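Morning, I've got a small favour to ask if you have a moment. It would help a lot if you went through both lines with me. I owe you a coffee for this, so here goes:
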Amino acid sequence: MIVWVNGAFGAGKSSTARELVDLIPNSTLYDPEVTGGGLRGLLPAKRLAEVEDYQDLPIWRRLVVDTAAALLAELGGVLVVPMTLLRQEYRDEIFGGLAARRIDVRHVLLAPEETILRQRIDRRSEYDDPDTDARVREWCHGHLAPYRAALDWLADDAYVVDTSALTVAEAARSVADAVRAGDATPCGIVQTPEPTGETVAAGVLLFDERDRFLLVDPTYKPGWEFPGGVVEAGEPPARAGMREVAEEIGLELDAVPRLLLVDWERPEPPGYGGLRLLFDGGTLGPADTERLCLPGAELRDWRFVTEEEAADLLPPVRYRRLRWALRARERGTVLNLEAGDPVG
């Protein structure tokens, strides 16, 4: 199990986490800042200069998951992780990766009132160098606006502890009590097993009467996606797409969808790649659209979008696949792609 202590920069996550390991039996502290610091010796300076924050590096997010899983495998028990996560897509990627390893995450948010938070930041002094302390305080103040913007999803996702009137020890006791009592419940993110080899996945394009198509927002990985998923052993791909549509958005398709394209996805570690199929699920009428729902924890949202709007929602590889699928639909044909490009 992981207790992830989130909050604004300066909210007291690290000090609370240090107290917390004394209150939760068989617990260990893991600070992902250590992983970020290690990247200084691993990545070229040119790559590091391209980002303002380690969290923007895909390798950091991957290493946080791998390191946390390795620590739990080595030590067992509970891992206490103090780390600010303000971007929901990064939370999806990290918590989804942990869920894929069957690791429960109890997400806790330390949330003092902003006036008190600012006062605590102003009193913050961790280094012997006054200039360094001043830069740290400026950094914390500069990230209050992103923290405010993230509060809506954070409050829905995490167990919130108002630390306005609490000491560090009292805040740690509140978190420990919430974990022990089950009030800080495991994060409701879908546990998608990591593939051990190439996979076949089936996606289904569903259109509305304005010829927009449906995209869904998974909770377990960054970026939007088409309804669909991995084809199970012995399962026909088109039927797999129909099953996933029913599971994800509660819609039973009346007819087997028509194949639009097959795309071979290049293996890029830690992924294995494989075949990705896109099907045309047809046009949904108003009654069908009204029946759309999100019955499980796998998705947080859905929407109908245009091809242009999809460019801002889909990762590049999925967007290329989408564009060719739409062209195949227009031409009434089936396309064969390799890594997003037509062949043959």
